[in-house]
From TrEMBL:
It comes from the Eukaryota. This is homogentisate 1,2-dioxygenase. It holds the Pfam family HgmA_C. Keywords: Dioxygenase, Iron, Metal-binding, Oxidoreductase, Phenylalanine catabolism, Tyrosine catabolism.
Length: 453
């Protein structure tokens, strides 16, 4: 499969797999070229201001509506849709505890595809009122066959951790490898193949608005993620009839499916600004202190979803990429911290500056609103005496954070102590801070660390 992309975050694209399949100068001609149907896919209200308005026009072999009625999927699922604690459906739990998970298991037996391999960890709000977010992981070992998925509840930002995802979408193909992310907006049908076999990763789902590049303020016109590095698929279609396709949607947190006798990937041409995209995190132009002190992690924001309050994100996607550390006279790891936001972290590879052990690739941690957290004892002690030479921090490491202004509720699966025979949820996480010693000595204004170098 040749993967071809169009570039530029939020551009208005036009792409066709057959010459002149796109109508000239209008969206809905009486007769569309090649006998195609025209269909609009709206990603914002019709009346959203022009700067926010997102929609695409799809020219396809059949309109999407040619399918059997939706019926609930009866197979057991670890997906949660509504996070109001106490709501009859939700079974979610609120806990301010600092939580950490060892690498989430990838199933070794049976065939588990991307949809069956979705597990919700935490979330807030409810898609029915377009408030909130959800955090899921996926752990799968099989490609989706003759099936597609779309999310009615919101947009998915997918962080691949192990294995590439070969994603066929209505707009074309995306090949996404670890160190890359992709965003599949609400409603867009996609099917995931696993060219490398077993796979794992993380998903940030937002129930309202869409991901945007952060404003750069005094940074200026350049830096962080560059718009031109966001890649969108070119139109690619298949004309397959007579095979039964199952299309599953997550709708208010529940799965429903329809069937149809033709491929849903029959879009010959499309134009517009509502489409899936991918981004290589290695292209992120990292900015940080060249003098002193630890800069807040918002400096590493790749994408953000705004709320109506200026500067307050519904969710930020933040990375901790390889970078030079040069800060002088500075405690360089993350500071001890209590936050009015909730912080979920994952690790794609390597290790993370605040934790000497226990936070592993494919695992995760959650530090909830106002729950204290920071470096473990080993990290604190080492960083308190380390020589402050310039160092290249973890050239192969990539950690990330989903940070949200909402309080999260925990899905039952996330707190299941028996996951993988009790090897996932770390009961003893809190102990990494228990040994932090008292160093206070009122007779030593210069502190105690000078003696310990
Ligand atoms: O590890 C964390 O908790 C994330 C984090 C990183 C950082 O560099 C500063 C603050 C912060 O919350
Ligand atoms: Fe933090």
């Amino acid at each position: 499969m040749p993967y071809k992309y169009l570039s530029g975050f939020g551009n208005d694209f036009a792409t066709e797999a057959l010459p002149n399949a796109l109508p000239e100068g209008q969206n809905s001609p009486q007769k569309v070229a090649y006998g195609l149907y025209a269909e609009q896919l709206s990603g914002t209200a019709f009346t959203a201001p022009r700067a926010d308005n997102q929609r695409s026009w799809l020219y396809r072999i059949r309109p999407s509506v040619c399918h059997t009625p939706y019926s609930p999927v009866t197979a057991a699922s670890d997906i949660v849709g509504s996070f109001g604690v106490g709501s009859k459906d939700s079974h979610c739990v609120s806990t301010p505890n600092q939580l950490r998970w060892s690498p989430f298991e990838i199933p070794e037996t049976g065939k588990v595809d991307f949809v069956a391999g979705l597990h919700t960890l935490a979330g807030s709000g409810d898609p029915s009122t377009r408030t909130g977010i959800a955090i899921h992981i996926y752990a799968a070992n099989a490609s989706m066959e003759n099936s597609a998925f779309y999310n009615s509840d919101g947009d998915f930002l997918i962080v691949t951790q192990q294995g590439r995802l070969d994603i066929q979408t209505e707009m074309g193909h995306l090949l996404v490898e670890p160190n890359e992310i992709c965003v599949i907006p609400r409603g867009i049908r996609f099917s995931v193949k696993l060219p490398d076999g077993p796979t794992r990763g993380y998903i940030l789902e937002v129930f309202d608005r869409h991901f945007e590049l952060p404003d750069l303020g005094p940074i200026g016109a350049n830096g962080l993620a560059a718009p031109r590095d966001f890649l969108y698929p070119v139109a690619a279609y298949e004309d397959v009839d007579g095979t039964s396709y199952k299309i599953t949607t997550k709708y208010q947190g529940r799965l429903f499916s329809v069937s149809q006798g033709h491929s849903p990937f029959d879009v010959v041409a499309w134009h517009g600004n509502y489409a899936p995209y991918k981004y290589d995190l290695r292209k992120f132009c990292t900015i940080n202190t060249v003098s002193f002190d630890h800069i807040d992690p918002s400096i590493f924001t790749v994408l953000t979803v705004k709320t109506s309050v200026p500067g307050v994100a519904l969710a930020d996607f933040v990375i901790f990429p390889p970078r030079w550390m040069v800060a002088e006279n500075t405690f360089r790891p993350p500071y001890y911290h209590r936050n009015c936001m909730s912080e979920f972290m994952g690790l794609v590879s390597g290790a993370y500056d605040a934790k000497a052990k226990g936070f592993l690739p494919g695992g995760g941690s959650l530090h909830s609103m106002m729950s204290p957290h920071g470096p473990d004892r080993t990290t604190f002690e080492k960083a308190s005496v380390d020589a402050l030479a310039p160092i290249k921090l973890r050239p192969d490491g990539l950690a990330f954070m989903f940070e949200t202004s909402h309080m999260l509720s925990l899905a039952p699966w996330a707190l299941d102590k028996n996951l993988a025979g009790g090897r996932v949820l770390q009961d003893d996480y809190y102990t990494c801070w228990q040994g932090l010693e008292k160093h206070f000595d009122p007779t030593k204004p210069e502190g105690v660390w000078a003696d310990k170098k």
